[in-house]
């Protein structure tokens, strides 16, 4: 009996049960052993951003929609409380879109970016050029995600590792710390990334050095570093061989347009952008339509009013919708014509205008502003002092960048004018609504996290 | 009278093993006293009191045997010619009693240990000379036919032979006083005293007692009498009485502790099966299936993307029930610990039929029959339906228009269609043919069988499921019986042709005034796109071709006496090829953009297993010790893929993926599982009274990360057969069998999926710029380990009145801890959870009761009854961190895992006519999850079956009532709000109509935003949507007639039997829904099937 017991206990043959990984997936270490698979890990992030339920793809649960609802661009028709709460500026901390589509997805991209940075740092087989490009892209993504988290939620956890034992206990960081990391990441990305689009076959669908500069210009502007904001946006504006404003407004959102700094490519077969699919009305709106306030703020004769906004009349009621993206998609036999716009040159002119105005370079600011106005068929600005110019730039950003990536929402918060502008328009407005609540799920699972005021 | 005695042993009170057992005996006596309140007066008493007039010797010996506790052994033959006598004994010793009895007769006796042997006087003299003689003989069964393959062992001499085809045997030079042990499976073992006879004619009686039937256990066999574990068996005979195509269906209601639900009445459909409750919170709760020694998959190979109509299917559809000899359900630690890491949820052993020596036998069976659904719901007729719709619009203050009320304004409101009758009210047809050839001699036996089964559906249209099967088993012994080879294999191909969706839900919710199915031109009528014609679904196909091959080879050799080396090789391959489509012609033309599409899926799994074993059985001290040691090497491979195809130029090409303009891979799976172990078992049997069984297993599995791959499992089981104690024999002679058994041990659950410990990146659904992309699948924690299930069981088994009453009462307590669950993490980690072991504990306890009675048994008539009852209880004992986990709204510590957390419906407000709910947090609104305060167990309180078998001459009637007491989700959970465009059960007519009405059905509403509709949504999640789903069902009925042998003999048939069989004949239930068993509204209920058949053996 003893012999049996002992042999039973000490019996072990590890070799037999050590199996190879499955043929349908890759183990982390082999992902970063090869240029192609390592690249696939990076494009996997863009792929997921463009999948239907992710926050960047333009379905009803994305930053553009949330931002436009929270500000004064969209009216909600949704019967889903999760979406309506953004419109009512009364987001519950258990809101599923907030928790998973926004917060959760942004952090999952950060996880992937960190995993790629870590994987590449120890890889000996991925070529140096590819390693540099991919590390740069990952840093860009990490910065991009932290930027949005910070501007939507206020102080947020800064995550730069994949170790869940550490990250699960990470508390909120002060905005200066987060911005410090964002700027550092973007600067590194700027230095590592290619200066053209050759690595993506000429298509503008993966970030390069210029995308890093464009993001950096925006971050400097948001942090009040006017000189650097002017310098970074100036780099893009100066690269006229690569980037220029299109005189035809209907061409701006076409794939790889000359105005594009960064677009992502739709991935669901037969579909163009989800913005096109969801915003364009063919019947009574079920998600959103444009707010009259926005419609009324266009100056007469503004080309953008006619080219980027369209309407549908049902039972004598007219509904307006953004018409920047013109393809609805849904038919696999029609080729894709539009990509989702992430960064474009027009914003850089407005960034430089604002940075110059802040530095009291009135003429320079007017010049940049007028570039945008003249393309829209408008006369030169009449604003000629700093205060008036800043308001004029805010107005120009409103009509140029509407329903894109929450620009309006962030502008109102940045300028401190959210209460003044939104207070009278939105019945449920409270000053604390400027920050979204930290999801309850997060606080329950991480005692280090605190809630924003007002929730 | 037969004495069934197998071993003579001389107790030696000094032996330490005996001392141990004595200690155990005292403990057990104390336990038994609680059950039976036995007084200990009988202990040690050997005084005999007897007063008989004109009594036969047989009767006197029986009386002496009972009182003395000594086994009195005699051959009936020697009593022939003895006289009846009067006897008067007071406080006599055994010796005095025997002297008094034998003196008058020509008999003498001999006391050997605890046994008395009666001799004829003259023979006993001869025996003393101890001559060696040659003995030949023949063994016959109860019908006088020769019994081939009967083993004959000479006690003390050790010689052993088997009878040949003619039942004959020959023994050379054995002592003239030898005792022969004559045994044959299924017959009572006899001990024959040779008494210098050289010619013996031995008759064996068929085993009437279930106690001595062979009981299959893990890696061996025992009998119910000697088993230390909890095992239930369903035999071929029972399976054959049921016209089912999945063996699981034949087990329903028959086994205590086994909970089986047939989820759908569609052929090839799925089953839910649990042995003794849910043990694992997040992982598999399937039992381990072993078919002829080969592990068999418990999860379906059918793809989720293609097989909704069969609810995902069930792999056991790939086994022909009529090829099965027995199904053994292993439940406690003693029985399952030998399966180590896979035994936590119990084990089901399936053994296929084997040939028997004797005349070559041809067995043909054919049956045919018809099936219909068991129950229909009482739904509204058109006038009532229109009334509720109009009332709903009125209540909402809305004027109906063509788009909101097409059933009122567009459709012909004089129409009435009984959609249940139209869509699921058809009759399905069954055809089954089985044939086998079996036979062989003592050394080689074989069976070769084939079967064909076809069943159609109750849906309109030509849909069917057909299966063909082949089965072979060859068993061979070498001439010296030391080498044995057993090969078994079966192959089943299944061809399932169905529609792609179950029509049950359509049958329940379609408006009774819905438009006609066909227009005047006999085309599908879409009524201008105002409805989805359910007959369009009949144009959508589901086709599945499956094949299943199971083969097994066992080689064994008896190296030394009692030492057997054995190796088992098994291989199983199962493949499923499926296609599901929706052609353009089946799509509503109102949606012009809708495209024809198909989904193609295929999957296959293969398993091989090699299990070398050694078994050694020997006399150790006063008892018998059997030791088993063995190992397992096993591999499973699974490959599966599902692809969606769209963009067909024509419906005619829809089954050809190459004709599609767009293909999208929905899933692609590959997994490998390797498993190895070393196991051992020691069984010690002392006097057939005390049995100790120890098992252990060390398992390694590829499903766990480095350092966590190996674990040890083990169990100890003990049984005390107290009926073999003198004090019971004498004190409570009514008890013919009594056993107390208990077991404790651990088993594991590794049903967690493969590769969980690896840091895997999976491909995204679509490429990015023509190149595939990858994303991280999960956070990696390679530190997790097995879920451990600690099982404890105690049971009392009693046989009374010569085992005419047999009952078992068992109590079990299984605690499953170290639960592998997703440990919740904040999303900032990138994921919401990581696979980890939590100290969460799930406990399953329960009482199991089984009673078998022989109510009447005489020459022509017998009546047997079997009852089983299970009272299970499930409890989540601990779950640290439940509040912050994904399970917070699902489970409560201290409650069952079967609960749902619901709103508490406080009735219909008589003023507003709307459901009201308890506002637990008093904040003025009913909020999810804060107001989920009603906790309801959606599960079984108890369940069981009552089986009766009546036999009169060739007539036989079997029927089984299944009973279940349970709570389920009723129609309110599934049906749309009353007032919307959906039919309703007629009970909604008792709704609230005006202020002051007292009712439990709220007012009708058709508006999504009305207060009544909001209350309806809350009501779906409330205790009002739960209710009694208990039922009693005449589950099975079998009526057969066996033609008398003198009649069948004339036409050279060995046997001929005709029968009528039925399944789910009658159901009694108050359930507010379709069928209380499956409680589904999207699945067809199990069918009532009635068949007629014939079996011929020649």
Give the tags:
heterodimer, A: 455 residues, mainly alpha, Serine Threonine Protein Phosphatase 5, Tetratricopeptide repeat, two-stranded antiparallel sheet, 7 strands, B: 1098 residues, mainly beta, 11% helix, disordered N terminus
Round the Cα radius of gyration of chain A to an integer and report it: 24 Å
Strand order of the largest sheet of chain A: 2-4
Q: In sequence order, what are the helices and strands of chain A, one letter per element?
A: HHEHHHEHHHHHHHEHEHHEEEHHHHHH
Helix run count of chain A: 21
Helix content of chain B: 10-25%
- Tell how many strands the DSSP assignment of chain B holds: 52
Structural commentary:
The complex is a heterodimer of chains A (455) and B (1098). Chain A is 51% helix and 7% strand. Chain A has helices at residues 2-10, 14-17, 28-31, 35-50, 63-70, 81-87, 96-122, 128-153, 164-167, 175-192, 209-222, 226-238, 274-279, 292-296, 303-307, 345-358, 362-375, 386-400, 407-414, 418-425, 440-445; strands spanning 26-27, 74-76, 260-264, 288-290, 309-314, 317-322, 340-344. Chain A is globular and about 80 Å long. The relative contact order of chain A is 0.13. The mean pLDDT of chain A is 90. Chain B is elongated, with a radius of gyration of 34 Å. In chain B, 11% of the residues lie in helices and 46% in strands. In chain B, β41 and β42 form a beta hairpin. Chain B has a 22-stranded antiparallel beta barrel. β1 (26-27) of chain A pairs antiparallel with β35 of chain B, so a sheet runs across the interface.
Describe the structure in brief.
Chain A is mostly helical and 455 residues long.
SSE diagram, text form:
The complex is a heterodimer of chains A (455) and B (1098).
Chain A: H1 2-10, H2 14-17, E1 26-27, H3 28-31, H4 35-50, H5 63-70, E2 74-76, H6 81-87, H7 96-122, H8 128-153, H9 164-167, H10 175-192, H11 209-222, H12 226-238, E3 260-264, H13 274-279, E4 288-290, H14 292-296, H15 303-307, E5 309-314, E6 317-322, E7 340-344, H16 345-358, H17 362-375, H18 386-400, H19 407-414, H20 418-425, H21 440-445
Antiparallel strand pairs in A: 2-4, 3-7, 5-6
Helix pairs in contact in A: 4-7, 4-8, 5-6, 5-19, 7-8, 8-10, 10-11, 11-12, 11-16, 12-16, 16-17, 16-18, 17-18
Chain B: H1 16-36, E1 48-55, H2 57-68, E2 71-73, H3 76-79, E3 85-92, H4 94-103, E4 107-112, E5 115-120, H5 121-127, E6 132-140, E7 151-154, E8 160-162, E9 168-175, E10 179-183, E11 190-193, E12 199-203, E13 214-217, E14 220-223, E15 231-235, H6 236-240, E16 258-262, E17 271-275, E18 288-291, E19 294-296, E20 324-330, H7 333-336, E21 347-352, E22 358-373, H8 382-396, H9 406-409, H10 419-424, E23 428-440, E24 444-456, E25 464-477, E26 483-499, H11 504-509, E27 541-560, E28 563-582, E29 597-620, E30 623-648, E31 660-686, E32 690-701, E33 710-720, H12 726-731, E34 735-749, E35 760-763, E36 774-776, E37 787-800, E38 805-817, E39 819-824, E40 833-838, E41 841-857, E42 861-878, E43 899-902, E44 905-908, E45 915-917, E46 934-937, E47 940-952, E48 955-969, H13 971-974, H14 1011-1020, E49 1026-1028, E50 1031-1042, H15 1045-1050, E51 1055-1069, E52 1087-1097
Helix pairs in contact in B: 2-4
């Amino acid at each position: 009996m003893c012999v049996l017991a002992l042999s039973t206990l000490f019996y072990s043959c590890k070799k037999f049960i050590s199996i190879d990984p499955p043929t349908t997936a890759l183990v982390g270490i082999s992902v970063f052993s090869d240029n192609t698979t390592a690249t696939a890990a990076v494009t996997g992030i863009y792929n997921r951003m463009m999948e239907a339920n992710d926050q960047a793809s333009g379905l009803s649960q994305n930053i553009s929609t949330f931002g436009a609802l929270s500000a004064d661009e969209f009216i909600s028709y949704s019967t889903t409380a999760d979406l309506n709460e953004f419109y009512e500026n009364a987001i519950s901390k258990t809101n599923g879109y907030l928790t998973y589509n926004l917060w959760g997805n942004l952090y999952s991209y950060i996880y992937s970016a960190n995993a790629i940075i870590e994987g590449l740092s120890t890889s000996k087989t991925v070529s140096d050029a590819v390693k540099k490009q991919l590390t740069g892209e990952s840093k860009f993504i990490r910065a991009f995600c932290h930027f949005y988290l910070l501007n939507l939620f206020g102080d947020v956890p800064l995550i730069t590792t994949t170790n869940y034992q550490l990250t699960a206990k990470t508390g909120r960081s002060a905005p200066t710390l987060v911005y410090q990391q964002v700027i550092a990441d973007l600067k590194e990305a700027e230095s590592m990334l290619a200066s053209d689009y050759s690595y993506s076959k000429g298509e503008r669908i993966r970030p390069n050095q210029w995308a890093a500069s464009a993001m950096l210009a925006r971050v400097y502007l948001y942090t009040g570093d006017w000189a650097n904001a002017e310098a970074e946006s100036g780099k893009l504006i100066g690269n006229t061989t690569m980037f220029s404003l299109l005189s035809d407004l209907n061409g701006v959102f076409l794939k790889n347009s000359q105005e594009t700094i960064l677009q992502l490519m739709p991935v669901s077969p037969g579909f163009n952008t989800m913005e096109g699919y969801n915003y364009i009305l063919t019947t009574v709106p079920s998600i959103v339509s444009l707010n009259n306030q926005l419609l009324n703020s266009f100056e007469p004769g503004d080309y953008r009013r006619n080219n980027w906004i369209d309407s549908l009349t049902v039972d004598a009621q007219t509904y307006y919708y953004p018409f920047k993206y013109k393809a609805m998609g849904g038919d696999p036999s029609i080729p894709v014509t539009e990509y989702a716009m992430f960064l474009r040159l027009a914003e850089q002119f407005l960034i430089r205008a604002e940075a110059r105005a802040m530095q009291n370079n009135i003429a320079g600011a007017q010049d940049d502003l007028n570039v945008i106005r003249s393309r829209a068929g408008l006369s030169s600005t009449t604003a000629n002092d700093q205060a008036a110019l800043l308001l004029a730039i805010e107005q120009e950003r409103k009509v140029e960048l509407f329903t894109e990536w929450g620009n309006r929402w962030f502008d109102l918060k940045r300028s401190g004018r959210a209460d003044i502008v939104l207070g009278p328009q939105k019945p449920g407005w409270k000053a604390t609504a400027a920050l979204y609540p930290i999801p309850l799920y997060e606080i329950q699972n991480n005692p280090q996290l605190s809630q924003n005021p007002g929730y | 009278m037969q004495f069934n005695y197998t071993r003579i042993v001389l107790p030696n009170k000094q032996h330490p093993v005996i001392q141990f057992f004595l200690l155990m005996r005292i403990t057990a006596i104390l336990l038994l006293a609680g059950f039976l309140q036995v007084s200990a007066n009988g202990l040690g008493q050997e005084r005999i009191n007897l007063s008989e007039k004109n009594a036969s010797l047989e009767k006197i010996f029986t009386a002496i045997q009972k009182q003395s506790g000594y086994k009195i052994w005699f051959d009936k033959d020697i009593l022939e010619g003895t006289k009846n006598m009067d006897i008067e004994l007071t406080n006599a010793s055994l010796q005095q009693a025997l002297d008094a009895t034998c003196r008058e007769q020509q008999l003498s006796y001999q006391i050997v240990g605890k046994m008395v042997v009666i001799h004829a006087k003259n023979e006993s003299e001869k025996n003393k000379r101890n001559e060696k003689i040659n003995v030949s003989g023949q063994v016959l069964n109860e019908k006088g036919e020769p019994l081939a393959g009967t083993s004959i062992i000479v006690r003390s001499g050790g010689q052993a032979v088997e009878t040949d085809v003619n039942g004959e045997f020959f023994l050379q030079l054995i002592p003239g006083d030898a005792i022969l042990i004559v045994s044959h499976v299924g017959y009572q073992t006899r001990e024959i005293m040779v008494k210098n006879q050289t010619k013996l004619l031995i008759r064996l009686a068929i085993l009437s007692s279930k106690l001595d039937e062979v009981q299959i256990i893990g890696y061996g066999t025992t009998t119910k009498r000697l088993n230390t574990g909890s095992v239930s068996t369903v035999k071929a005979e029972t399976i054959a009485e049921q016209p089912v195509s999945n063996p699981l269906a034949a087990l329903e209601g028959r086994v205590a502790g086994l909970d089986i639900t047939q989820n759908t009445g569609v052929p090839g459909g799925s089953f839910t099966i649990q042995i003794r409750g849910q043990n694992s919170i997040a992982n598999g709760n399937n039992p381990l299936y072993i078919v002829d020694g080969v592990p068999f998959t418990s999860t379906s190979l059918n793809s989720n993307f293609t097989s909704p109509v069969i609810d995902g299917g069930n792999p056991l559809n790939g086994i022909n029930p009529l090829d099965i000899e027995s199904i053994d359900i292993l439940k406690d630690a003693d029985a399952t610990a030998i399966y180590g890491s896979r035994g936590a949820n119990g084990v089901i052993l399936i053994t296929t039929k084997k040939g028997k020596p004797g005349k070559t036998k041809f067995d043909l069976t054919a049956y045919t029959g018809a099936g219909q659904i068991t129950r229909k719901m009482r739904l509204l007729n058109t006038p009532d339906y229109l009334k509720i719709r109009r009332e709903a619009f009125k209540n909402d203050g809305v004027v109906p228009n063509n788009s909101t009320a097409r059933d009122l304004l567009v459709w012909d409101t004089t129409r009435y269609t009984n959609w249940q009758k139209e869509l699921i009210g058809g009759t399905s047809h069954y055809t089954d043919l089985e044939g086998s050839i079996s036979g062989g001699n003592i050394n080689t036996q074989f069976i070769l069988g084939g079967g064909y089964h076809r069943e159609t559906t109750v849906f309109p249209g030509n849909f069917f499921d057909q299966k063909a099967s082949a089965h072979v088993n060859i068993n061979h012994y070498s001439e010296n019986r030391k080498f044995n080879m057993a090969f078994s294999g079966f192959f089943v191909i299944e061809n399932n042709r169905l529609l792609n969706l179950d029509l049950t839900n359509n049958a329940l919710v379609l408006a009774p005034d819905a438009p006609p199915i066909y227009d005047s031109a006999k085309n599908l009528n879409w009524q201008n796109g105002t409805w989805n014609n359910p007959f369009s679904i009949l144009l959508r196909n589901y086709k599945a071709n499956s094949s299943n091959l199971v083969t097994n080879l066992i080689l064994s050799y008896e190296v030394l006496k009692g030492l057997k080396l054995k190796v088992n090789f098994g291989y199983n391959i199962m493949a499923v090829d499926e296609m599901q489509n929706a052609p353009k012609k089946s799509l509503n033309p109102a949606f012009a953009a809708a495209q024809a599409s198909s989904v193609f899926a295929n999957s296959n799994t293969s398993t091989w297993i090699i299990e070398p074993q050694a078994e050694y059985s020997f006399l150790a001290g006063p008892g018998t010790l059997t030791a088993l040691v063995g190992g397992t090497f096993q591999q499973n491979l699974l490959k599966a893929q599902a692809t969606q195809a769209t963009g067909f130029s024509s419906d005619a090409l829809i089954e050809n993926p190459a004709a599609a303009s767009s293909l999208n891979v929905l899933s692609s799976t590959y997994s490998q599982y390797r498993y190895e172990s070393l196991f051992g078992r020691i069984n010690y049997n002392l006097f057939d009274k005390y049995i100790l069984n120890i098992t252990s297993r060390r398992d390694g599995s590829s499903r766990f990360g480095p350092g966590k791959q190996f674990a040890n499992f083990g169990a100890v089981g003990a049984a005390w057969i107290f009926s073999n104690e003198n004090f019971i024999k004498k004190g409570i002679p009514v008890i013919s069998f009594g056993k107390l058994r208990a077991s404790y041990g651990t088993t594991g659950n590794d049903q967690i999926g493969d590769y969980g410990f690896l840091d895997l990146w999976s491909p995204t659904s679509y490429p990015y710029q023509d190149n595939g992309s990858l994303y991280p699948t999960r956070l990696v924690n390679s530190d997790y380990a097995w879920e451990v299930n600690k099982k404890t069981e105690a049971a009392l088994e009693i046989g009374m009145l010569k085992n005419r009453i047999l009952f078992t009462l068992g109590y079990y307590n299984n605690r499953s801890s170290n639960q592998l669950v997703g440990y919740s993490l904040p999303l900032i980690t990138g994921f919401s959870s990581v696979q980890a072991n939590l100290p969460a504990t799930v406990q399953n306890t329960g009482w199991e009761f089984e009673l078998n009675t022989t109510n009447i048994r005489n020459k022509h008539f017998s009546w047997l009854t079997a009852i089983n009852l299970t009272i299970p209880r499930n409890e989540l004992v601990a779950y640290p961190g439940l509040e912050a986990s994904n399970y917070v709204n699902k489970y409560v510590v201290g409650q069952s895992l079967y609960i749902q957390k619901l709103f508490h419906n406080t009735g219909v407000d008589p003023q507003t006519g709307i459901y009201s709910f308890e506002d637990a947090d008093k904040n003025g609104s009913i909020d999810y999850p804060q107001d989920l305060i009603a906790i309801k167990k959606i599960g079984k309180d108890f369940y069981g079956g009552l089986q009766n078998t009546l036999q009169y001459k060739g007539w036989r009637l079997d029927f089984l009532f299944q009973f279940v007491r349970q709570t389920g989700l009723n129609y309110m959970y599934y049906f749309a709000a009353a007032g919307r465009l959906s039919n309703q059960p007629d009970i909604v007519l008792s709704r609230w109509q005006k202020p002051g009405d007292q009712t439990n059905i709220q007012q009708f509403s058709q508006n999504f935003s009305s207060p009544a509709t909001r209350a309806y949504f809350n009501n779906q999640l409330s205790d009002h949507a739960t209710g009694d789903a208990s039922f009693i069902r005449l589950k099975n009925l079998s009526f057969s007639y066996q033609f008398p042998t003198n009649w069948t003999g004339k036409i050279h048939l060995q046997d001929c039997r005709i029968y009528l069989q039925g399944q789910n004949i009658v159901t009694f239930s108050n359930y507010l829904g379709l069928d209380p068993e499956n409680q589904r509204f999207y699945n067809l209920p199990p069918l009532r099937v009635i068949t007629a058949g014939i079996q011929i053996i020649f």
